[in-house]
Write a structure and sequence with these properties.
Radius of gyration: 22 Å
Strand order of the largest sheet: 5-4-3-6-7-9-8
Distance between the termini: 32 Å
Number of helices: 13
Order of helices and strands: HHHHHHEEHEHEHEHEHHEHEE
CATH superfamily of the largest domain: Vaccinia Virus protein VP39
Bound molecules: S-adenosylmethionine
Low-confidence stretches: 1-29, 345-350
Shape: elongated
Structural class: alpha/beta
Number of strands: 9
CATH topology of the largest domain: Rossmann fold
Helix content: 25-40%
CATH class of the largest domain: Alpha Beta
Strand content: 15-25%
Length: 350
């Protein structure tokens, strides 16, 4: 799903063709005869293509595969490729395809998506995890593997994720760092609910605390102080420059929460709050890992130099699979603020 995920996430709108042989065709009309999975994929791929729906064939394959109980068309048993679908299955494909014709992202239509090998529930308007964010998680895991273990009494890192969305980053870190614990913060109630649900689905709820909080509010850090100093802060914040928002694909603009994407004039509105908050909550030598726009490493680097009191230093920048500088590692080298050690066990889930 990783490769298709990359293809499905073209940020810019696809070609919009009008008219053509399907001009008078009613997409919601029931198909008159039972079709095989292969025929159905070709049929809807042609419809999507004609209507200018991006990733026409992939969308069609995902929908048909999902209705037949598989994650990808390629993973369907070959016997199912040529077998006719039942009328109920056909209707399901038809309904899901009509959502795709309205530019709903495939991830919302299927109601699930894979991230770092975890199957997560997806629901609009909660941000759909992007494939490049898997690279951010990989970087955090690499760095963690190099750190001395037994970081505290519980033996693993205490991680703070700001802007958890569906829980993709937090839950994949938890599943791959068995000793870790995570505080996952988001300002959107829908995101908090989905992270709860995904944590329970994956039976990771015991090691995650999910907190509804807007980190741009004054003294927001004070709400997190009782959890104890953290070893690591990770975030894929809203970082899109406001003027770039209008160029996003209809799939994004119509279905995903703009507050998950829009970072303000220079995409830094939430980032600077995360950095200020991280400086207060991190242990000395603690790390921050951020996913950003390619213009941000320069902007954030100079902003950090203008804020010496934060004691934060840009350590490294990494490129994404397209070769763009998209990930930042920042380290704190300064005193740890007073906060209770290991407040974790006594506190309740939000
Ligand atoms: C780009 S999404 C990332 C979601 C998830 N971490 C992922 O990578 O799939 C950014 C998230 O930050 C949250 N967010 C935006 N502004 C915030 C704020 N001021 N305080 C806390 N969370 C915020 C949004 O609700 C959204 O869920």
């Amino acid at each position: 799903m990783k490769v298709w995920g990359r293809i499905l996430w073209t940020l810019l709108p696809g070609p919009r063709r009008k008219g053509g042989i399907w001009g008078s065709w009613a997409p919601h009309a029931p198909l008159v005869r039972l079709m095989s999975a292969t025929e159905l994929v070709s049929h809807w791929a042609a419809v999507f293509e004609e209507k200018g729906i991006p990733e026409a064939r992939e969308s069609s394959e995902y929908i048909v595969a999902h209705v037949l109980g598989a994650q990808t068309f390629q993973s369907l048993r070959p016997a199912l490729w040529t077998q006719s679908l039942t009328p109920q299955q056909l209707q399901c494909v038809q309904e899901m395809s009509s959502h795709r014709l309205q530019r709903m992202p495939v991830q919302y239509i299927l109601g699930e998506w894979d991230f770092q090998g975890l199957n997560l529930k997806m629901a609009p308007p909660v941000f759909i995890p992007r494939p490049e964010t898997e690279e951010l998680v990989d970087w955090v895991l690499e760095e963690e593997a190099q750190r001395p273990c037994a970081l505290d009494a519980q033996g693993g890192p205490l991680i703070l994720e700001i802007g958890c969305g569906s829980g993709a980053i937090a839950l994949s870190l938890l599943s791959q760092l068995p000793q870790s614990r995570i505080i996952a913060v988001d300002k959107a109630e829908a995101a908090i609910c989905l992270t709860h649900e995904n944590a329970h689905r994956l039976q990771l709820q015991d090691r995650i605390r999910i907190v509804l909080l807007d980190v741009t509010l004054e003294r927001s850090w004070a709400h997190l102080l009782p959890w104890g100093p953290v070893d690591l802060v990770v975030s894929n914040p809203p970082y899109i420059f406001h003027q770039d928002m209008e160029h996003l694909a209809p799939e994004i603009l119509s279905y995903e929460d703009p507050a998950a994407l829009d970072g303000g004039k220079e995409g830094m509105n939430v980032i600077i709050h995360i950095l200020a908050l991280a400086s207060r909550l991190l242990k000395n030598s603690g790390s921050i890992f951020l996913e950003v726009d390619p213009r941000h490493p320069g902007l954030v680097g100079s902003w950090l130099r203008s804020q010496p009191d934060l004691h934060l230093e840009l350590m490294a920048v990494r490129k994404d699979f397209c070769g763009r500088p998209r990930f930042m590692h920042i380290r704190k080298s300064g005193p740890q603020f007073d906060s209770p050690e290991n407040a974790w066990p006594g506190l309740q889930l939000a």
